[in-house]
Amino acid sequence: MANSASAPKPRRLSRRDSSLGDKIFDICNYVLLTCLMIVTLYPFLNTLAVSLNAASDSIKGGIHLLPRDFSLENYKYVFRENTIFTATTISVLRTVIGTIVTVFASAMVAYTISRPEYVLRKFITIAFIITMYINGGLIPNYLLIRDLGLINNFWVYILPGIIGVFNLIIIRSFIEQLPESVIESARIDGAGDFRTFFNIVFPLCLPVLATVALFTAVYQWNSWFDVFLYNSSNVELSTLQYELQKILQNSNTTSSAESAFANSANGSAIKVSPLSIRATMTIVAAVPMIIIYPFLQKYFVKGMTVGGVKG
Amino acid sequence: MEKNTALAASTMTPKPQPTGLRLFLKRLVQQRMLVLMSVPFVVWLFIFKYVPVWGWTIAFQDYQPALPFKDQKWVGFHHFDALFSEDRFLIALRNTLAMSGINLVLGFVTAITLALLLNEVRKVAFKRVVQTVSYLPHFISWVVAAGIIQTTLAPDGIINELLKWFGAIDKGQEYLFLGKAEWFWGIFGASSVWKDVGWNTIVYLAAITSIDPAQYEAAEMDGAGRLRRMWYITLPGIRPVIIVLLIMNIGYLLESGFEPQYLLGNGMNVDYSENIDIFVLKYGLQQFNFPLATAAGMFKTVVSFVLLFSANHLAKRMGQDRLF
Q: What range(s) does the ABC transmembrane type-1 domain occupy (chain A) (predicted)?
């Protein structure tokens, strides 16, 4: 959508376009936008450079865009720890399972509330929409999860968030735009509601479901608060984001001077420092998103404009 | 609720039909497949979204975790009185309002400006690159963002280095940015802009595409330059979208976010970083004062509800049905 926005106006070939004022404007605009790109990208590249630099050298500071003393030692160290392997597995598992469950369940419920003849249609729609406005809040939710026995349980990552109202509404709108004849003809062939949904409607909804899947996957991958709240006493259920959060929390309390000292106390053969570990973990936690995102950008943008304001 | 639907169905059907409830049940049986596909998720919704609202009763009790519900002692609005005479809560409320206010103003101004600038770029490839780069931080978690921000603001981070380079500070005078409490709101605002400014342009760029190109041509005939066309055509063209988004965002005034404040907050800036959500977390799950924390959470939800509802109503009256 935003990509097609790149040609909002037909090309104007008047004389004024090449006037001096326009040229100055263009130059300023390009400079400003280039600055924006630098400000956006520099912190990422800097973190990457620190993660690829030998820890003993990074402490001296002054690393910018390129590693000064290239080394993969930080990554080796991070992945030598068993917890990071477990955490990666759990992160991947919750992302995959959470996305599949959310997409399937949201599509199914959206289908039922898109059927005009369904007697519970209005009741279900309203019941979902009310939850957009009212939620119990942290403490009652915590007590509920505890009473359900979901503390220290993998399913606490999946169950509480199966269906989001926003997803439900955009899928329903999409289904309602499908030609009714498609569903009718399935009915005439004798398909029940589930078969109509699964064989006909679900495949036709793939464009909007792709968007929902992507948003869900990003949400699942990036979550750490539920780990902190419910599963923090079980390392086996930790995720990459939560492991990174723990590192940040630690480095928040110790100043970098102290940590440098703590390391130099270990003798001259220091391999790692909190600074380097933090940078390395940041990259490990961020890289999957950064890699897949440019390829899937158009689906994300579509999702924003499907549910967003019509201009 | 089901009875209401049944009633509605019965009033709509002519007299000779079976009674409302029986008709309703008959149709329910006919539509058992749809029921089977949706009702389990209604049960899920009830458990995970409605049962916690019942937990609000804790805010009115002298809650003892070990006791069953019927044995709890009711104390009326006692915890709310305590809440509003609690200094930490008032500070948290101030911080919440300040940070969401900053976010609102800064977020809008920067996103609209960037959208206008992007719209003026004629090299399609350059525009795509800027868009891809500026959307990027939206997809990383706040944990990763906080890691990056901490590195950037560290005493040996790039900001301090730039300040030294410009001669604003000398070596050894590096700022501990996250240790300066009164700077926290600014750091929070800048971080939020860094993370989301690109992403927030999407809606505006989509709105700009619907502006009639003839308007630009006419303005050009009249001799309007680029800046004037931006100011007199593009900006008024997206005004309805701006107004609706503004109204909607006012509905989220008490939702200043949780993650950035929690992740960037520390003992030194707590007086400026602690918002209502963090207050609830601290009092509830770290000090186990469930009633007070529930009261704070309930206050937030109720005020948000009123704000959101009025905002939606207002947005609807302005002719835009963003939300149902």
A: 88-296
Domain termination residue (choose one: B79, B110, B141): B79
Residues B6, B24 within the same domain: yes
Cα angle B98-B101-B107, degrees, rounded to a multiple of 5: 135
| Cβ–Cβ gap B203/A305 under 8 Å | yes
Q: Which residues of B touch A141 (CB under 8 A)?
A: 52, 55
CB contact under 8 A, A140 and B55: yes
Sorting pLDDT into bands at 50, 70 and 90, what band is A308? very low
Establish if B109 belongs to a structural domain. Answer: yes
Q: Is the same domain home to B169 and B212?
A: yes
Q: Which residues does chain B have within 8 Å of residue A45's beta carbon, measured at their own beta carbons?
A: none
Beta carbons of B252 and B308 less than 8 angstroms apart: yes
Say if residues A224 and A241 touch (Cβ distance below 8 Å).
yes
> In terms of domains, do B16 and B133 share one?
no
- Residue of chain A minimizing CA distance to B304: A133
Query: The tokens of A92 are what?
Result: 């991947």
What CA–CA distance (Å, rounded) separates B25 from B30?
A: 9
pLDDT at A305: 67
Contact A138 B277 (CB under 8 A): yes
For residue A105, which residues of chain B lie inside 8 Å, CB to CB? 41
CATH of the domain at B88: 1.10.3720.10
* Nearest CB partner across the interface for A118, out of B31, B140, B158: B31
Domain count, chain B: 2
Convert the pLDDT of each residue in A216-260 to its tens digit: 999 999 999 999 999 999 999 999 999 999 988 876 555 444 444
Residue range A4-61, pLDDT digits in tens: 444 444 444 444 456 788 888 899 999 999 999 999 999 999 999 999 998 888 877 7
Tokens of A53: 């630099």
Identify the closest residue of chain A to B4 by CA–CA distance.
A123
Which residue in B146, B156, B202 is closest to A305 by CB distance? B202
Please judge whether B210 and A119 are an interchain contact, meaning their C-beta atoms are less than 8 angstroms apart: no
Per-residue pLDDT tens for B257-288? Answer: 899 999 999 889 999 999 999 999 999 988 88
Mean pLDDT of all residues in chain B? 87
Q: What is the pLDDT of residue A17?
A: 52
Q: Return the number of CB contacts < 8 Å for A and B.
A: 329
Q: What is the pLDDT of residues A79-109, one digit of tens each?
A: 887 888 899 999 999 999 999 999 999 999 9
Of A22, A64, A305, nearest to B225 by CB-CB distance is: A22
Please say whether the dihedral angle defined by the alpha carbons of residues B288, B66, B80 and B82, taken in this order, is positive or negative: negative
Q: What domain range includes position B164?
A: 81-317
Q: Does domain A79-311 have CATH number 3.40.640.10?
A: no
What burial class does residue A48 get, using C-beta atoms within 10 Å of its C-beta: 0-12 exposed, 13-18 middle, 19+ buried? buried
Query: Residue B74: what are its φ and ψ, rounded to 5°?
Result: -90, 135
The kind and range of the H/E element at B39 are: helix B32-45
Query: Is B324 domain-assigned?
Result: no
Cβ–Cβ gap A135/B322 under 8 Å: no
Are B74 and B138 members of one domain? Answer: no
Name the closest residue on chain A to residue B203, using Cα atoms. Answer: A305
Task: Tell which of B79, B105, B134 closes a domain.
Answer: B79
Q: How far is CA A153 from CA A217, A234, A242, A252, B284, in A?
A: 20, 9, 15, 29, 21
